[in-house]
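Re: the 194-residue chain
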Amino acid sequence: MDKNTLYEALAGFNGVSDIKLESVKQEELTKQFSEVAKRILNTGYFEVNGSRRIYPTVIEFYYHEEVEGGLEDPIMYHTNLNNKGQVDYYPFGSFNFHVSGLDVTFEKKDEYRASFLIREYDVYSLKDGAWIKDKSECRSTYIYEDMLMGLSVFDGISINWVTEQSAIEYSVTTTERKNVASYHIENNPLAELI
């Protein structure tokens, strides 16, 4: 399998639940997330039924440890903390549609939950045999429409990651999450990144 595929990028993420020192956890998470982001932004797109392409241009990472004393992310939807009970782990590479948009998950059972939200993206459609850019979208919740609207359930729905080197080399920067209130939770260094 090509080392630049989305699968390989997510599989290379190891989490930081084995690291005890919080500052080292943060540093390692930033490093791992940056590597994953470079590969997602620069090496492919989601193709929908062979007629639509979604190119992520801005992504946000979410990470929550389900181990005692682990990092907690109070914003992440799919956690035991936010659901006030045991939540099943998603299979590796699953979509998680929610009120903020679409996450792609890469969780490690009984250890951590990890995902990236497609915060901004470009949409291309196949028209007369050529891929034409329809728009750049900065509203993450519009991905439902851009990815799924107008597709017939009788024709089937196919969404696949296609590995292809981007014509544009996106750089990776670490910033605060968009539209997320600040949280200050005792013993939660991740909250300081929000």
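The longest helix spans residues 22-42.
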